[in-house]
Amino acid sequence: MIIKPQRGREKEQPNRINEKIRGLKEVRLVGDNVEQGIFSFEEAMRIADQLELDLVEISPNAVPPVCKIIDYQKFLYQQKKREKEQKAKTAKVVLKEIRFGPQTDDHDYNFKLKHAQEFLKEGCKVKAYVFFKGRSILFKDQGEVLLARFANDLEEYAKVDQLPQLEGKRMIITFSPKKTK
Fold this sequence. Notes:
- The protein is built from four helices and eight strands, in the order ββαββαβαβαββ.
- By secondary structure, the chain is an alpha/beta fold.
- The chain is rod-shaped and about 85 Å long.
């Protein structure tokens, strides 16, 4: 009876370390507090053991392969920390919605326009739509005029991503903030 190891149980490590490095006669050794150069694999392992650190294969495709003597857990921690910082720096796009009715009053329109300007100054995208209830779908042209006026008023703050388009009971237009220099 042959027992196969179950997949997914062992943690997959991005780099081979210590005894998991196989089939190498010599390696290029780098690291802090280590004499850099080309050593036999056994000599590199002995140096790592003396320093009570790990021998980690950094570049397996190089000739000879590059190994570094470091504390592997500390190395993984720093790598995760760098990835987390890079992820935090990526831009997150926020989409704000503004809803109009086909017969929106001037005061309400100005109020919503002011909010849209603030959202765009913050760097958010804005999605404005006219929602048609019941028979108000007959006033599609009023909705289109309203959104065109809205786009015209936001011209200095944003560029139009999508022109007014009717999707079901909504007529939608989207804006992206203009890049300030």
